[in-house]
Design a protein that fits this description.
Sulfite Reductase Hemoprotein, domain 1; five-stranded mixed β-sheet; 304 residues; alpha/beta; Alpha-Beta Plaits
Length: 304
């Protein structure tokens, strides 16, 4: 789409964002112009784009982005994905909150990355996977841990060897009067909130994805945070052998990440034989192997 020169200059001078988000803002400005049946983007659409993104991301995040780029520092240093200075058969994937945060953020993906790398090195996972592999090593032989800061799971953790994402469990505080604004219901993508009658929200825990959006949107605190934690999946796979991972924790603690990782490494060491991928090993042995290692043989799973 065409841009008026004044609009293009205004965009270049006033829109501050990373390379991918810059492109999204350009497309958004063009969308606004098309909605008004315009043949070219004007400064008005650029100003509206700046306002809409500020409303979406929030004042704090916009402030961090602005300070970073206006100071000339550019993009922030990213968390490590593997042990620096050596070839590895594992990788840590983190969602886009690693740059400047995210409006939906629940956990800090940066804080978990290095401890996981240290643990994987202590397990000598690269050497273990190399010895268990068949034929020449390829990139798809890498063990992938996916970390997302919220329940949107932008890194696709359910389809990786191990998926970790932040979750928040909401609850109704009966001591705080609901004003019946229904912002919680509007914020819920999963239709987990309904109103039996005026001023009485109900949370359907079966439908709730623990994203915390209703908590953030509730203006009175009628819906409040009960617990924050980590959802943990293992044995996912994408591509030709696509498999949804198995849930180990619906609401785990930080230490549960490393308990689960320990169980996964034990599974690879003891049970992987002719299989190429962790998902195949889990299929063969069953998720109960992981559960027994994590929960000590008890049937009750934590955090459900």
């Amino acid at each position: 789409m065409e841009w008026e020169k004044q609009a293009l200059d205004y965009f270049d001078e006033n829109v501050l964002a990373g390379p991918h988000q810059i492109d999204m803002r350009r497309l958004y400005a063009e969308k606004l112009a098309r909605a008004k049946k315009k043949e070219a983007v004007t400064q008005f659409e650029v100003e509206q784009t700046i306002k809409d993104y500020a409303d979406f991301f929030g004042e704090e995040m916009i402030k961090r982005v602005t300070e970073c780029f206006s100071s000339g520092k550019g993009m922030p240093e990213l968390p490590p994905t593997e042990k620096e200075g050596k070839p590895c058969l594992y990788q840590i994937e983190t969602c886009h909150s690693k740059y400047f945060g995210c409006p939906s953020q629940i956990i800090d993906v940066r804080e978990i990355s290095q401890p996981l790398i240290d643990a994987l090195e202590d397990y000598h996972l690269t050497e273990l996977l190399a010895d268990k592999s068949h034929g020449p090593l390829m990139l798809h032989n890498k063990f992938t841990i996916s970390i997302s800061s919220c329940a949107n799971v932008c890194t696709g953790g359910e389809s990786k060897d191990m998926g970790i994402w932040g979750v928040e469990k909401p609850r109704i505080n009966p001591e705080v009067k609901c004003v019946d604004c229904k912002k919680c219901m509007e914020a819920c993508w999963d239709s987990a909130i309904s109103f039996k009658k005026e001023g009485q929200p109900i949370i359907n825990e079966r439908l709730c994805k623990l994203c915390g959006a209703c908590i953030k949107k509730c203006p009175t605190g009628t819906i409040e945070l009960e617990k924050r934690g980590y959802r943990i999946f293992v044995g996912g796979m994408f591509g030709r052998m696509y498999t949804i991972g198995r849930e180990v924790f619906r609401m785990g603690e930080r230490q549960d990440i490393f308990k689960t990782l320990d169980a996964v490494v034990s599974l690879i060491r003891e049970k992987q034989d002719g299989e190429h991928f962790l998902s195949q090993v889990v299929d063969k042995v069953g998720i109960d192997y992981i559960n027994r290692r994590v929960f000590g043989g008890t049937k009750e799973r934590k955090g459900l």
